[in-house]
Prior knowledge:
signal; 9-stranded antiparallel sheet
Amino acid sequence: MVAFSLLTIATLLGSALANPVPAPAASSDLEIPAVNASEVDKRQTTEGVYLLNCGTASNPNIYHPVVYCPDISNCGRIPSNNNLCYGPTWWETSTGACRFPTGVTFTWNIVANAQDYGDMDVVGRGNNGRPREFIIRKDRKGVLYTDGQGYQCRAIYVAI
Length: 160
């Protein structure tokens, strides 16, 4: 019986080695495997960038800050001036950019129909001049913070 089991295992192993599973085909720039939203937990300790819309319930688009978070788990408050710059009124652009007071420029490319995607789906890429590229996901539009004027700043996209 033991000999039969070893023979069976050896046969299966030999078959697997002789017929390996092919590698997946190369994907386009924005086709990244879907990730469960819980796996992209914002409480992880990593840097990130939020693209926000700030305003009131009746006018949610009064201004559009870009917020850099050295530790994205600690980004739920009004950012310091060095971690804040202002973006365009429309995020879904092929060449968006925002220059922070520190001199760092964050650039992004977001697909035109990004708001048609599901929450936390990949919708673009970003870069702040470092070798590491940011993956941009459509966020859930939750309030990240309320500014000093009482405007709620909602997360439209998050770049991690």
